[in-house]
Amino acid sequence: MADFEQKVGFGLQSISRPIVLHVSVALVVGTLLSGCASAPNANDPQAVAEYKELNDPIEPLNRTFFEFNRGLDTMLLRPAATFYKAMMPPPLQNLVHNFLNNLKTPVVLLNDVLQGEGQRASDTLARFAINTTVGILGLGDPATGMGFARHGEDFGQTLGVWGSGEGPYLVLPILGPSNPRDAVGKVVDTLTDPIWHYAQNTDREYIPNERLVADAINFRARNLNEINDLQRTSIDYYAAVRDLYRQIRSDEIRNGAAPTNSGLPAMSMNLDSNDTYSMDAMKDPDAQDPNLATKD
Question: d(Cα 271, Cα 151) in Å, to the nearest integer?
């Protein structure tokens, strides 16, 4: 899922996010030739169309990294998120959540400006000023109550708005679902983040790592049941995450106006509901096409 791509960090104490990303990309490139999926026969137009629609030419390699990340989630992130959610009272969870979101505001503002979104940039600036002062360093979120709703932006979305194609689907070790456009976006977002520069210039390189881990645990805890349910109910969990990731990123680039064509339930991020994900109910295939009925 979407964003599962940006948020899975596992206590790398001496490696900053750009280095993790560089290592991830190097691993992908280094094994690319051995991990390519076989292209379908050119004489089968239906198979060729499906292959292009999936946009996953290195699927075997991606599945390998997906299982690696899934193992890390099972062993580390999910237990940490479960413990955090059980032990931390919801009001304190909300304070942490608000604080982490406030730290992202400068990067959101920059991308609002780069996308030419004047009104959204104005709202983002107002949110940062209000929440940092009245909200006490972002622990509170009075800006939302004042009519300045939060939204997310990143440089991957900016490249999409500028017309850059997503490129082939990728699963990066540790970082999760991505594509070349979003991988470049991650690097740019990090290099334009004031917190990252502060940490580098004050010999506090541990700050971005701890923040990455906190973001991951916060996100996983807030979507604990939804992610667990998707994993439990999906016939092919890898394919479900791939399709939902692409759907959500398309939705984010269009600021919520993206069509849904995947055949999966529409999934979107509820920024007004504490960053949880919601999913439309699955339609009964029997009701749509009697030929698909499997009932006796």
Answer: 7
- Per-residue pLDDT reduced to its tens digit, 98-145: 999 999 999 999 999 999 999 999 999 999 999 999 999 999 999 999
- In a domain, residue 32? The reply is yes
Pair 177, 243: CB distance under 8 Å: no
Tell me 73's DSSP state.
I
For residue 141, tell me if it sits in a domain.
yes
* Overall pTM surpassing 0.85 (yes/no): no
Residue 232 structural domain: 2-38+80-259
The H or E element spanning position 268 is strand 267-270
Number of domains in the chain: 1
Does 271 map to a domain?
no
Q: Are 65 and 29 in contact (CB under 8 A)?
A: no
Q: Residue 242: CB partners within 8 Å, gap ≥ 6?
A: 54, 56, 62, 169, 177
Q: Which residues 6+ apart lie within 8 Å of 167 measured at CB? A: 179, 180, 181
Phi, psi (5° rounding) for residue 83?
-65, -45
